[in-house]
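Fold this sequence, please.
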Amino acid sequence: MLRRDILRAIAGTACVSVSGTLSFPALANLPSAGSRESLAAKLAPALRTVGGEVCMNAAQRLENLHRDGRPISLHLRRAGLNMSGALMIARALQSLSASEAALLRSFSVSYNPDMEDGGAIALAQSMPGNIRDVGLVGCGLSDAGGAALLEWANSAVGLQMICVEENRFSDQLRKQFVLLREENSSLVVFV
């Protein structure tokens, strides 16, 4: 885990006891190794069912994550995802517990043009709000999928960057994404 991630996780919660020792109450809320294994047990089968080299490799990485203490990035760029595959992944995301979802920091399904609005809507309704970075670049989305992502982004407490360029959004929806960026100075938006 990077130092800045650790500091974010415990910012303002370190306490010095009378004996002079430091305690970090927030560390009690960090996901356990069991959460990592159960996250893999829920997402990997969906990825294997979707198939293709990118999804199969992602499933393998998830199954090996007990060896790695870093936050999880699930990047399925150019995976050949269609709406059906996106729906399978969305169902797996919905099945995550809060502690499992807390492990997922970055999620990208960019450059899957056959995913379309239906897949984006399902993913937007399933993605945990703690994800920091989200990418749905070049996914064949129109305003319906974009609006679902915008609604998710407005409620996502951990979001730091969202990349949704190279889709078929109207000028009006693009302006709404720009407004989202203006209302959240720490948020990076590529639209």
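The first strand starts at residue 15 and ends at 16. Helices lie at 3-10, 33-50, 53-63, 83-94, 98-101, 116-124, 143-155, 171-183.
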